[in-house]
Structure formats: C-alpha cells, structure tokens
Amino acid sequence: MGNRLSPIPLRLGPLAPPGFAVRRSGLRWLREDGALCRAGEAVAYCNVGILPILGASRRFEEAFKDEFQDLQAALAPRVAGRIRRSEISSRGGFLDRLDLFQFWSADFVIGHLEPAEDAGPGLPGEEDELDILFMTGRRQANISEGRQGLLTGWHSRTRAWRPRDGAPPGAVLGLGVCELDGVLGGESSAFLELFEAIGGPAHAVHAHQEPLVPTARILVEQIRRTEAEYAAIVADLMGYLLKASPPALPEEWIFAAALLRGLGRKPLSDSYDLLSRTDVHRSGPVDAVLLTANAESQQLLRHRRLGYTLRIHEHRMWYAGRAVAAWIKDSFEPFAHGLDDMAHDYRELIGLIRAAPGRMPAHMLVFNRVSSLGDDDVQTYLGFDKPMSATLTSIYAKDLNLMLHDLARGHDVAIVDVDAITAEMGGQRNMPDAIHGSGALYAEVRAEVVHILRGKGVPGFGPALG
Q1: Rounded distance between C-alpha atoms, residue 251 and residue 261, angstroms
Q2: What integer is the mean pLDDT of 200-210?
Q3: How far apart are CA 413 and CA 16, in angstroms?
Q4: Distance linking the first and last C-alpha atoms of the chain
C-alpha cells in the first residue's frame, strides 16, 4: 500500500467497456482545494459520454437509450486526507459540462491526496485509483436539460450505482412522494450520502412520477394496464385539451404530458443499464422497493368512462390550469377510500409482486406516517363523530400505521418507522408539517432503511469500510 504519509496521485483509473469509446467533460469540484475529505467522499465529478464504436451490435447502440445525455461520474478518494487539485483538472465553462472534448484516460491525475495520519481503513482497491459512483437520469423530455450540477434537470427517474467488476449490485427503488428524495437522494439529490454509508456494489433508483401520486391502487393499475388501455387514456386527455375553450395553455400540455408519462410507466418491473470499468450490462428489476404511506389518501378520483384511478396533490392542481381542471371535473368522480380499501390495495400489490419472482422486487419497505408532532391540544374526543380518523389527522395517521403493522405481520413487509424516529428527534422541530423533514431527520431515516436492507440480505448495503 506504500507510505501512507506520502502524497497519493489520484488517477481516474480505467473505464473501457468493450464496444464503446468513452469521453468525459472537465472536472467540477465538490470540495475546495486543501479540504480534508473522508474516504469515499465524492470530491469531484464529470459528465461521461459512451459512444458505440462503429459496427457495434444493436445491444451497444441502445445502451442508456433514454439516459445517455445525463450520465455522470462522481469521484472519491479511497483513503481520508487533504485534497490538492491539479491545475489542469478543470477549464470551466461548457468544457466542464459537455463530454465532447476529451477521452477518458486511465492515467489522468486530477490531483493529489495528503493522507491523514489517523485515516483508518480505506475503500477496497488501489489507493491511487479513484472510486467511482455513476449516476444518470431519464429526462421528462429531451429539452428538459439542466447541466448546472449533479443530476440537475427535470427527470422522471434518477439513479446512481457503485460498480464492482464481477459482483452484481443490490438495488432499491424509491417509489413515492417528495420525502423519498430527501432520504435516498440526500442533500444533493444525487445519492451521495447513501453511497458514502454503504460498501457497494449497490444501485439506488428514485422514480419521480409527478404529478401522479403512486398510491398502492395506482401501482396495481400500472402493473395491469394494457397498451390498448393506455392508448385510450392518452386519446381521452389529448382529445379533451384539443377541444378546450379557452384553449389549453402550453404549460397545461406539459402537465398533461408528465401525467401521461406516469400513467404509462411500469416502474416495478423496469430494468436498467449499468456501466462499470470493464462492461456495460443490463440489470433486471430491483431487489427492494421503498413506498410511503404519505402517498395514500382517503379520497381518490375514478375516471367515469375508462375506470382508472387518479391522485394528484392538491398543490399541483392549484397551478394545473383551467383546461386540466375542467378535464378532471368533467371526466372523474371522487370516491371515498378508507383504511380497509388501502389494506386491500396493499395486499393486491403484494400478491402481484410475489406472483412474479425475478420480474419484480423481492422485498417491500413502507414508510409509516407521522402521527403526532407533540403539539396536539385536543382535551376531549367526545365531540367528534366516529370514525374519528375521518376528521382528525393524528387519529387517521395512527389508524393507518396500525393497518400497516397488521399488513407487515402477515405479508413480510418491513415498516420504516418514521413516526418513532420523528418523535425521538423532537417532533415538530425536525418535521413541522408531518411530511417534510430536516436533513438530520432524513439521515436517521436513511440509516434505518440501510439497516433493514442489510437485514434482508440485499447485496451491497453492508458497511462502507472494513
């Protein structure tokens, strides 16, 4: 391993998957020159381009078909120490944003590391070869580009993976609402905190289905929806907006397109392209899916003619536009969806997943709801009609959590106890509205998710350092 107190050159290391030429942008730094960095902490990143070599097979031509424009590599030293940047690592401007101008070179040195005397164990591999975390996103549309930073832009799905050649990565899919971005994506929304906490190889995916909210009922319908049924949904919405008076605004067409994207996906059975230093290969569905009870609602919408279910957050509807609002009013009817209905939806979803081994996740984790922030001031419940869950949010959350725990006992579902974690951290101080949490809270929830995945034997989610 050499003298740990001598400066260590930080090489990119090889990236040569057969059938591709690999390019990159200049580096953009995440840590300042002279900063003390942890082992495995991402310190810089670049955009990566993989171009199929002329005459390569169709498999290579279609790799990262919907994601190649936003493929990036975050780079981390394998031991702790002080970073010293190379003056030629970055040239600024679009030379650091586009992958058009230089090829990936294994021996390119981005800088040096002065090892810390108390650095402790490092990541597996050669000390002078940077560890790589790859990430990419599937854009909502080709023009929804954002090259300002890591995984910026408007994506319908973002993901990151740490490869280890010869070892298949364990994988988790986050499929819910905004809180999952804070837990899986972390402060940067680029999965950095998650991957610094685990040893890999691992793969994390976050499906962004906005404005569609993925309740258990909607996920069941996504799995079962045929191409003909989806075509009818598209024709209905597009036909309505085409005839709308006054005409639908451009932003309403964007809203409708994003909604249709969500309705047309089957995220639980997705497969993924993965890049490593020596290969590009296709990976099947994830090992575990992470859902959240905050996606559920006591009232849903049902299409009067086509029969499918819809849920959109109220704050999205406020800005959707008059034509979209009229479509929902004319085409849908609201219906009550109680806790027994939600339990039925979850059981049906679990049954569909378990009936397709190898084609859907093997494990399911569900965030429960925060049931009290410590500010309840109800002195007596005598004045409330039963069921009180229909009136009082805190009672509804407690009943929903009880339903989830009954479900967990009978169907091998893991509950991520956000309710207990929030209470232990002071309630309102870290989650003022019972949904949106602080970075400290999400760090604790992330640790609990990793703990559960380890307990279920999902590969790659073991401790970061030996």
Answers
A1: 15
A2: 93
A3: 40
A4: 16
